[in-house]
Structure formats: structure tokens, C-alpha cells
Calnexin (Brassicogethes aeneus), 527 residues
Amino acid sequence: MNLRIHWIVLFGVLLLGNTSFGQEEQDDEEATVETVADDILYDSPKPADQSKVYFHDHFDDTANFNKKWVKSSAKKEGIEEDIAKYDGEWAIEEPVKDGLLGDKGLVLKSKAKHAAISSNLHKPFVFNTKPLIVQYEVVLQEGQECGGAYLKLLSQSAEHKDLSQFTDKTPYSIMFGPDKCGNDYKLHFIFKHKNPLNGTIEEKHCQKPKERLEEIYDDKLPHLYTLILNPDNTFEIRIDNKIFNSGSLLEDFAPPVNPPAEIEDPADKKPEDWDEREKIPDPEAVKPEDWDEDAPAQIVDESATMPDGWLENELTHVPDPEAKKPEDWDSDMDGEWEPPLIENPVCAGAPGCGTWEPPLINNPAFKGKWRAPYIDNPNYKGKWRPRTIPNPDYFEDKHPFKLPTVGAIGFELWSMSKDILFDNIIITDEYYVAEQWAADTFSKKRQKIAKDSVTFWGRMMRAMNNRPKTWGAYFIYCSLPVIGYIYYLFRCVKEVRRLYCQPCIARQSPKNNVETTSVYFAFFFLY
Ligand SMILES: *[C@@H]1O[C@H](CO)[C@@H](O)[C@H](O)[C@H]1NC(C)=O
């Protein structure tokens, strides 16, 4: 096998690589340490306008985190003692991969444990004339089998101000964020609504949008969740800055905020004589004189005759003349021995044996049971429905936006996958503040990831943008493996032909095979 061509191609690539791309390669090797400082510089973010911020945390400052956040040491009510404790572990850590230098997050370390942590807002958020914008990042570093990554905006209350006692019973105004179990993918937006008539508090769940959610749970990348809630009751949910769901608190929640004005009267009953039958058998129809209900469905075919050659005196089955009584047959125990029956061989050549009977045919006079035809019911009153009455529980709340004031923020979670990273929480009343905050944090992370995951193609595209003069060189660079491979196949085909279609692979000596493979491996590795 002629290996020369492989080496020529290989040297060609090496040469090109060294001249045009050597610089590029070096840059990338240093990327992990230097390039961060080079082009994706991270500084702990500062809100664009502190006066519009109710809460923010970038989790880069562990000392500050320890001052602000309180881990719950409460017990969950109504479950077994040994699993009731909120003993899930939280830590301030850098992400497992693709992290920016100096960027840390809040990580839920443990799995299959109740975990709760919370912090007071810098100032309470009062639902009045300003919108509420809540934004944070989640990285499901280990994916998610079953569990939530949502946050709760805790309602301000004297009774619940001890954050170390934060549990699932702690009242919240809003719950927002991802949640998944098995194939059930959710992005919660729940608010608690107080019935103005009797004070009962009910959860209102945002209706599911049609968009698929699968990817954000599976790709293990940082995702940005934004909730914008306006004083006119409209809301918008964004994932990674793209609108994912929107609507109104008054129209897009279940159960609805406002009950129906009228309901069906539960006391109303269907009157005895209410006729709901749309059609009835015609009471005036009579059975025709000649309608014989007793005529059978089938009758003997009188016109049939016994086929010629039918052997009326022969039995259909006869004792097997070749059967022998078994040696161990005990007549006392087993009874008198009889040979088994076989089909009568005499019948094999005849249309049939034994008594001939004419076949049955359908009876043309058969009519069956007579029934009166159906007609429209003259007494039909339609389907009965109870009358409607004014709903005694009716109320109209035109401002469900006016939720209980939020005093704190918290995560109260249970997860089957560990290492969920939360980062860059912000609560503000100006969208641009959240937008700027994301540009300084989330966007940089995604840029870093894009940079780290640069593939052969990505690197090429980037270099082409930076250095248009190298287009031609890149074209050759890309074409080389293709040309090389086509040449290889071409040689292969030629050899096959020469050897009368014996596969060339089989003909190669093992040594040659290994060499060829290594050359190609080295070749692609260089790319
Ligand atoms: C309050 O009213 C709602 C709606 O009518 C009802 O479902 C709920 O049971 C009532 N609660 C109390 C405590 O009466």
C-alpha cells in the first residue's frame, strides 16, 4: 500500500497549521487562564440604579452572603420525624464548569433532603403603582430528575419574620421558577389570592404555555428566568431574555381569580314529566298482516341433491387396522382396548361418506321481530338544565396585582439531583435595571460558554471574521481531509477493480491497516 500520499497530506496540514493558525492555537491554549482577563472580564455586578432595587445578590461575596441569608432549621410538618428536618446543604461555590473568574453562586449541594434558605429584602416591595421584576439564574449542573428550582417571594408578616423557621407553610405572595418531575416539565408562576368575602387564601396557577421546556432541564447550561408583573395585572415571563409566556392575572390563571357571576341552582330538580327523548317509536304504526315474526332465519335447501358418488353406506371414520394393543395394557385397569379411529381411506376419493343432509340457506321470507319506526317526539322539551341563579359567593377583584407586601425571598426546595446553582437574583421595579444586571452576569457566562465550546467549525468561523485574508487558506485547510479521503477511496476502488472485487481492506496487511488508521487519526486530531 502506498502511504506516501498520506504523509504528504499530513505535512501539508502541519505546514499550513504552523503558518496561518499557530497564533490562533496558542491563544486558545491560554484561554482558561488569560483569555478571561482578555475579553470576558467579570466583575461582581452593581445594579444600574440602586434606588430601584429591592433585593440583589451575585453571591460572589461569601461574608456578605453569611450576613444576609438564613438557613432554615425548622421541621416540615405532617411527615415522618427522620425526614422532617430542613437539613439540605447550601454553599457558595464556583460553577463546576465554564465559570468566570471570581464568579460564584449559591449551590444546593444535597439531594433528597428538604432545603430552605431565605433573606430579607433590602426594602419591602409594596404592590401598588410600580411593576415587579424578579430575575435570577439557575444552572442544573447535574441535570434534574425530579425537583424544583423556584423561588418564593415571602409575604411580610410579623408572625413569620424569623427566617430560621422558614418552611413550606410560610406564606408567600409569589412563587416563580422551574420545576420538573419525570416527564412533567413546569415553569411555575403562582400567586396567592385572598378571597375578599371570607379571607380564604387560594393559589392561582399560571396556565401552561405551548412552548416546550425540555431543553432548559437537560442542557446543564445557565438559564435566566425573568418575571415581569405590571400594576395593570398583565405579566410576562422570559427565559434567557425571550418571551416564554404572557397574559393577565385576571384571565390566564386556574382557578380564575373571580368566580362566575351566575351559577346553576343546586336546589333545582328536573320535573317528573320532563321529556328528554328526542325520538320515539311511532305509536300509530301497526305490524303489517303478512309480517311473520316466526319465520326462521335459515331453511333447508330443498333443491339440493346428494352429490354423485356419495358413499352413504360407508362410515366417515374406521378403527386403525395397523394399531396394536400396547404390551402393558391392563384390561382390568384401563378397560377393553379399542384401536384409535382414523379417517376412512375409502372416503378419500369420494365427495363424502355417511348420511347425506341437504345444506341450510338464508330464508327469503325471514323478517324478524317487527318494530315501529321512530318519529320526532312531539313532547320533546330538550335537555334539562337547572336554572341559573346569582352566585352567592360572587365577588369581583379588579386588582389581583395588589398582593401582600413582599418582605423576604427564599428557596424552599426538594430535589433528586444535587448541585443546583442559583445566581444573580434581582428584584426591581425597572426592567432596564434587570436587563443591565443580566448583561453584566448571565450574558457574560453564556459568552464564556460559547467560547469554551468552540469547535473546529466555530474556531474557523471566528478566524474568518477576524482575518478575512485567510479565507482562501481556510478553504484549503477544510478541503484537505476531504480531498485526502476521496483520494484514499479512489485508490481503494482502483485496487478493488484490479483484484477482481476483492475488498481492499481485507487485502491490506495488518501493519498497513494500523499505519493508515494512525495517519488519519493524527490528521483529524490536528484539526
Ligand atoms: C370562602 O369562599 C370560597 C369560594 O366561595 C369557598 O370555596 C371557601 O370554602 C370559603 N372559605 C370559608 C372559610 O368559608
